[in-house]
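Page 37, top half.
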Amino acid sequence: MNTSASRQPGEMASAAQQNGEGRAMVVNGNLDDAVNGTASTSLDWEEFEVNIGWGTMRGKIRGKGPRLMLGVHGWLDNANTFDLLAPHLPKDVRFLSLDLPGHGRSDHFPPGFIYDPRGYMGAIRKTVMAIGWKRFIYLGHSMGAVVGIMYAATFPEDVAAFISIDIIKVWSLTPEKQPAAMKKYFLQLFDNEDKASQPALVYKEEELVRRTMDGSRSLDERGARILLQRGARRVEGGTGLVLTRDLRVKAYFIGFITLDEWVEMARAITSPTLICKASEGHEYEKKDPEGLKAMLEGFKQGCQHFRYYDIQGKHHIHLTAVDAVANPITRFLDSIKELGHNLG
């Protein structure tokens, strides 16, 4: 039953309306409990949803606060991306891990909407306004961190601190390359719209786990299964799994803002900032050392409290090397609390 059908914009689901208590930490075996929404968890997650007008944003929330923290996942991932990291967060943090539009269990954008960081930023802003969050810590991985740079620069009054996992320099294009990139985006978008109108592909469980690992090039089996627990559902009759994400999110969307503009956004971020960089992360950053340097200098120029850590591992380091990521994050959160920053 769709419990959000009669709910007004800004109204959250009651406990009785929410979809269970989260998900099981499945490492081996099948995903049945998780994809059917019957799994339990030792992490005390509660399902979250709020109507923001065009549709419903969903996620999962844990902790009592009073510090508020928003987690935003990467491209094609979902709110489960922080499952291993969440238990390491300080006990005074209330942590909301959000499914971006078209990902996980959040509604898909209506026809005509464009999936790109600006659209995601707008959905996040409407979400936090709807639930009354005035000031919070923003934690983003990959695309979630890209959106975070834009959000922290645009709405600095909202962001008490910004944490980026494996994003420093956003993929950007020079102006002369923009027309071809825009054409590529729309052609892919239209193609994916056509595909989305057709029956979804059905995968065997092990095949989908393998495809998720291969597609990411940075996930291990445990991480892939954790993401699929929220990112897939079992088809009627139990013959296989289908992905829950909107096919339109796969359209090429990056590069529409120049490097100079991204540097100005980094300079506009005034909140305490932490960057945890994977040693084997995005190759495009390594190919532009001057751009990388410019972004780092921009971050340092804008905020009064900046920390940077190189961490051994691939792009999904928060799922494959969680202790190495959790340690600098908890130290950072402790340090800004001691400095007396207003954290919500």
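Page 37, bottom half:
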Amino acid sequence: MRAADSDNTIFDSFLSHIHLYTIHSRKTMDQTEAISKTKEFYEANKIDAERIIFQKIPERLVHLYELLNKPEFCIPINYKECKFDVTTITKLENNVKNYAEGETPHNIVPGQMIIPSNKNSTELFKIIKSNISQLIEDNSILRLWITLLIPKIEDGNNFGVSIQNTVLKLIRNIDSASKTYLDKWSRYCAYRGKLISKVVKYPFIEDYRVAIEEFDEKQHLDVSLILREIYFFNTVLYDVIIKNIEKIKNPRTSNIDCLY
């Protein structure tokens, strides 16, 4: 019996070692797979960043330059006013009241009750919005790429690291300004809607209609200026990165170079 118990103990110990080895092997495999996927992500980010620097930004600069030379984006601006017909607005106001009271006029299509937005500014901002969104997306890739290239903290020989941090700060500033430009459009639409509601409510006050026309003209000017800012952001970002590409990739070397 004692021999049998001894054999069982040895067998249980063997199974325990096999179980621990299996768990350790699985952990090792999981860690190896995680490291492999991390390297793949790092390489993919590096390829995307270099494609943005050497291909996408130059192509975007050419595209933006062509847009800047179009008549609708030139300053002084070829602005088309979006005037309001007082008779139409009064008619729309009456229709809204009738629908609210449950009456349905037979000679009016419900779609005609909608007062349209300023289509000129809307079309121009769609162009601006796509360029801003692309800039923000590319900046997120570039920011991650540069951040991963920052070496561990050490004493001395940190000039290259300071260049990396300078470029990262530039990217953050561009992102912040670009997001502010996106918010401008929603504020414009909200304020313009309030002015139009005043025109509908007080169609006999001409100042409200003049205010809308002036506000539309100012927004048209803002859209043109925003496009120039986006062109400026891409130009500066490309210029700084290209001039310091070696220091960004290899921040610590024996030679100390200047920023530009």
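Margin note: The helical segments are 2-68, 86-100, 119-149, 159-201, 206-243, 245-249.
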